[in-house]
């Protein structure tokens, strides 16, 4: 690689880190409960090599709330970083943010191979960096984002295979896909699909023996998973139950009429996935996944994508066909589960950006000056639109999305930890109105360096005998009836009121003393 290319890649990496890995504790304002649980599992692995259930280096992290088990890659990557990072909300999200940076760098390397130009590669990487869905999900400690660099790495190996076919490169591509199965549940469907495409290309190029060896490489990487399924055969049923994969027709069987209805619903979902409104206008309905002010991709993709599809179809090359197949099959996982959710659609990002890059290059190199001017205007619009999105993300969105991330439990739990830490006789009670309170309590106890307090929390229910201690603090949502009743009584006094970013009160910490 030339020195200039290395300098461009280094500058791209530094810029991406500054954009993606800063202000992680500012927006989103709070960690949602799933982020906390991934991080708590990672902290347990980092400190003892065992998960929260006491199992040594498990493949999947089964929990009472989610028996199917959490995806392992994010947990082990985060655990590795927590061996040298202080435990905090920022360090919980930093590994995923760096996965986003890695994806941008891989896009640069991939596009450079595809287009043979540092400039085109840099623009392609910028298109990924300025993709709203990629930016937002890279700032959450959740597992779906970890599949994207795997797909980009696989595509990069396949470009190398296109340049010089060899069994080693074909097997490496298959092994990368095998590793990708451990990143996110949807990968259990998508990575074998990409493997089939890989083996089809490899079989036609090198023969089916080479394809068989590549398939073997994929299976070797999956051996730990296979052993886990053999020793935990209930996981398949748990996955079906957790994601309602068999729930299309309710409790009974499917007759022809209901089956036709399911098919129509799935086809409608498939179309909704590719609708311009979802892709470039409003995005996901959830404020966890979207600001609702911008789509999945930049608005310029409404031109770049169709032009790119045309360019890829006209190319009639295996690599072009691979990208088109990835784009067309991206909604498969969400269609199977029957819910249009961004976390199940993230594999659209690498294929969508690559397709848009082909469209951008086609317009930028067109003979007619008007099309070149269109390409320039569309490219200039991308950072301008992203700047507006970023300002909204750090401002209005931060305030409005806070309830979607659990609200300001941080202040009320930190206040309870301060009270309990100062007096070992204080009983810590948390209302049932605060879901996942055990995660919040454990997380903030560890953040405060008070691992000794982890076991001090008890769920509060009016009338329970074990709430009769003389000294106690109670965390509760002020909208709960029992909380308002206690706040108005003489037995408890209000220690603190946690307020949301918009100034509204949300949680109260009450104290009972002798």
* Global Rg: 25 Å
Ends distance: 73 Å
Report the mean per-residue pLDDT as an integer. 91
Q: Based on DSSP secondary structure assignment, what is the total number of beta strands? A: 7
Q: How do the strands of the widest beta sheet line up side by side?
A: 4-3-5-7-6
Element-by-element helix/strand order: HHEEHHHHHHHHHHHHHHHHHHHEHEEHEE
Q: β content, as a range?
A: 5-15%
Helix content: 55-70%
Major sheet summary line: 5 strands, mixed
Q: Which structural class fits the helix and strand makeup?
A: alpha/beta
Question: What is the overall silhouette?
Answer: globular
The poorly predicted ranges are: 246-252
- Helix tally equals 23
List keywords for this structure.
five-stranded mixed sheet; 23 helices
Commentary on this structure:
- The termini are far apart.
- The protein is α/β, with parallel strands linked by helices and 514 residues long.
- It has helices spanning 3-20, 33-48, 72-82, 89-115, 118-129, 132-137, 147-163, 167-180, 187-206, 208-221, 223-231, 235-243, 256-273, 276-281, 301-315, 318-329, 332-337, 348-364, 369-394, 396-401, 409-422, 437-447, 481-487; strands spanning 61-63, 66-70, 427-431, 457-460, 472-477, 493-499, 505-512.
- It contains 23 helices and 7 strands.
- The strands form 2 sheets. A 5-stranded mixed sheet has the order 4-3-5-7-6, with helices on both faces. A two-stranded antiparallel sheet has the order 1-2.
- Helix content is 61%, strand content 7%.
């Amino acid at each position: 690689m030339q020195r200039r290319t290395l300098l461009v890649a280094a500058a791209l990496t530094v810029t991406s880190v500054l954009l993606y890995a800063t202000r992680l504790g500012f927006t989103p304002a709070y960690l949602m409960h799933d982020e906390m649980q991934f991080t708590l599992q990672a902290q347990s692995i980092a400190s003892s090599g065992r998960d929260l259930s006491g199992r040594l280096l498990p493949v999947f992290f089964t929990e009472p709330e989610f028996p199917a088990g959490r995806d392992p890659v994010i947990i082990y990557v985060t655990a590795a970083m927590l061996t040298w990072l202080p435990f905090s909300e920022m360090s919980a999200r930093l590994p995923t943010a760096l996965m986003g940076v890695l994806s941008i760098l891989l896009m640069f390397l991939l596009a450079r191979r595809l287009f043979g130009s540092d400039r085109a590669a840099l623009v392609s990487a910028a298109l990924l960096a300025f993709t709203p869905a990629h930016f937002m999900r890279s700032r959450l400690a959740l597992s779906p984002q970890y599949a994207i660099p795997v797909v980009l790495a696989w595509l990069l190996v396949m470009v190398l295979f296109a340049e010089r076919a060899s069994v080693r490169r074909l097997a490496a591509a298959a092994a990368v896909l095998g590793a990708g199965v451990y990143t996110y549940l949807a990968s259990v469907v998508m990575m074998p699909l990409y493997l089939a495409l890989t083996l089809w290309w490899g079989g036609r190029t090198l023969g089916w023996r080479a394809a068989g060896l590549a398939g073997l490489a994929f299976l070797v990487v999956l051996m730990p998973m296979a052993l886990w399924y053999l020793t935990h055969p209930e996981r398949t049923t748990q996955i079906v139950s957790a994601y309602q994969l068999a729930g299309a027709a309710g409790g009974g069987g499917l007759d022809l009429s209901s089956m036709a209805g399911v098919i129509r619903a799935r086809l409608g979902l498939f179309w909704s996935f590719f609708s311009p409104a979802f892709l470039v206008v409003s995005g996901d309905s959830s404020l966890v996944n979207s600001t609702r002010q911008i789509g999945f991709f930049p608005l310029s993709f409404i031109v770049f994508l169709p032009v790119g599809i045309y360019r890829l179809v006209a190319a009639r090359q295996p690599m072009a066909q691979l990208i088109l197949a990835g784009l067309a099959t991206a909604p498969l996982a969400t269609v199977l589960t029957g819910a249009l959710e961004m976390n199940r659609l993230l594999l659209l990002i690498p294929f969508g950006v690559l397709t848009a890059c082909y469209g951008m290059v086609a317009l930028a190199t067109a003979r007619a000056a008007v099309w070149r001017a269109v390409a320039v205007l569309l490219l200039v619009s991308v950072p301008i639109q992203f700047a507006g999105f970023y300002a909204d993300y750090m401002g209005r969105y931060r305030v409005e999305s806070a309830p979607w991330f659990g609200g300001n439990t941080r202040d009320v739990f930190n206040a309870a930890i301060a009270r309990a830490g100062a007096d070992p006789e204080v009983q810590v009670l948390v209302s049932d109105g605060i879901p996942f309170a055990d995660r919040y309590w454990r997380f903030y106890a560890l953040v405060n360096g008070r691992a000794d307090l982890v076991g001090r929390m008890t769920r509060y229910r009016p009338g329970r005998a074990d709430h009769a201690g003389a000294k106690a603090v109670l965390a509760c949502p002020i909208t709960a009836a029992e909380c308002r009743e206690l706040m108005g009584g003489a037995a408890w006094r209000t220690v603190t009121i946690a307020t949301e970013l918009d100034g509204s009160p949300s949680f109260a910490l009450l104290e009972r003393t002798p």
